[in-house]
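Lab notebook: predicted structure, single chain.

Context: the supervisor wants predicted structures on file for every construct in the current expression panel, including those that have not yet been purified. This is the next one on the list. No modifications to the sequence; it matches the entry in the shared construct table.
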Amino acid sequence: MSGAGHRMTLRVYYEDTDLAGIVYYANYLKFIERGRTEYVRDIGLDQTRLKAEQGIVFAVRRVEADYIAPAKFDDVVDVVTTVERASGVRLVMRQVVERGGEVLFEALVTLVALSETGALVRLPAELRQAFAR
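Prediction complete. Output recorded below exactly as produced.
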């Protein structure tokens, strides 16, 4: 996965680990959330403005996750995010957490666009195009 997609680097802190000193499984979901947020920011999408002006928010609909190898306290890891598909109301992203090119965790995340009332809404064409780039 090295070299592809949006890349965000982070360090594993003590608070991210369990008693064995390895990253607690649920914290990988936090890592990839940060990666998605930074990816969206880097393509120029202001989620606060999107909500305020168009009433659109994103919600995770599904996560398929594979835990391959442990990250440990003080490791420096990369969260790599790529868009697999962007359709009317769905966005599917592949996210990988790697250390020095070694894949530690991999997830396929399906997001949906919602109105502030929780109803599914279509992504505006300009957003679908931004994600397709």
